[in-house]
Amino acid sequence: MANVAIISEKSKLKSQIEHYLGEVNYSVTIADEESDFATTNLILYDLTASQGIDVTIIKQIKTHTPLTPIIAIVNHGDVAVTANAIRAGAVNVIEIPLDQNSLIKCVEDGLSQNMDFQQDQRVIQQAIELLQSLQANKGNLYPLLSGHNPEQSAIPDTRSEVLQIGDLMIKINQEKVFYKKISIDLTHTQFRLLAILAKEHGSVVAFEELYFRLHGERIDRAASRTALSAHLSYLRTKLNDIGCGDYLENIRGRGYVLGIPDTDRSHSRKTNLDLMLEQLPIILWTTDDKLHITSIFGAGLTLLGLQPHDVIGLTPEEFFQSDVNHLSVFDAHHKALQGEANTFEQKIGNRIFHVYMEPSFSSKDQVTGCIGLAFDITEHKEVEQVYWQLVQQSLQGIIVFQDNRIVFANPAISEITGYTIDELISIEDPGQLIYSDDQSKVYENIQKHLAGEEMPSFVEFRIIHKDSSIRWIAQSAFVTTFRGRPAIQTSAIYWPQEK
Length: 499
Prior knowledge:
- This protein is an alpha+beta fold and 499 residues long.
- Helix content is 39%, strand content 26%.
- The protein contains 16 helices and 22 strands.
- The strands form 5 sheets. Strands 2-1-3-4-5 form a 5-stranded parallel beta sheet, sandwiched between helices. A 5-stranded antiparallel beta sheet has the order 14-13-17-16-15, with helices on both faces. The protein has a 5-stranded antiparallel beta sheet with strand order 19-18-22-21-20.
- A hairpin with a 3-residue loop joins strand 11 (248-251) and strand 12.
- Helix 3 (79-88) crosses helix 13 (378-393) and helix 5 packs across helix 7.
- The two termini are 53 Å apart.
């Protein structure tokens, strides 16, 4: 049962959410920004009274519990608040008035995104380990890959999740288990226990945790051990009968662990690398010192409708087939040949990849070619595009400052200041927009932001409009990254009250 926390000052809204989610068996907790979210699976944060300015709490929560998804509750049609919430780290928003079906779907999607995010982190870590392995083997892929042939590539089965632990293969959606390609007949409960242990392979899973993940309720260790002992005993017997009983170990008094016996670890490394390359949306390739592709693997090729034999022998420029970033591709590979690791983004077909380049070495530590690893970031870019569309349509004026210059401005800030976007970006000293008596206060706040100090939700100060009139605005700001470098993003609205 997932635990959902609500942060809101509105009693009626909290009661409504408790009722809606309680009907579908979610555990609902009333919380505030000081709460401990260690056991929380998802947070609903009410922004309907903040006018989109105060999203600092979202950023604070994401700092302490980055993997806990946050869904912002916003007023209907409030694009500015939506943009601010997403930029601060919310995975989604839901509008007032609440609809029960929409709320439940939004919560389910948020929980699913969290699982996907954690899987992405595991994927990235696996890829890093793979690159390290390639470096240790001087860029030679073939000793690491069992059964791979540059003329052949396995087509990944994306219809089911497959867990591979040594020679033990578990197909989650099909409820099938194989050891060295021999099927193991398990009951539904035995399979689910094995799948739970497989997802945590190498770590001890306590009896009470096994019971909770199997039945969705908490009981103490003694009761859970009694309830599960027979199932685990039969599971161990069936694994023994097929020759892999030593994969499952009972840690006396604590629980069970599923792991690879020492004798199987060497082979397992090859199998796991095979599985990763065949199923993850990456492309991994090597070149010689003439920059001809000598080997290429990964499910990212399948997304492009290609097989290794279509690519081996081509130059990187011929493979990428894009005039837009031709120079980036050429420079990145030549930098790697000179011993310099680097990254770039590249479109291949209708997909967008983030590419890491490394030099490969001979046994005498001489550079003999390149290693490239490309992650498919197409979906990430699509989300980013939606965010920037929201920014462009926002009623709040948004500016990004970098190196004491304006590097981005949206149409709303143009309306507030009277300057066109091109004029704003061309201003050498943005301080000239600030009324002289307020400049020191604004500069001090900028320095505090850069130092990571706690700041008010927003500050009020005067600006000089293009028509020379003096106008009050309320502005919030936070440190961000823009084009890969630190920057400050601000959001501003008119503050027309008499001062």
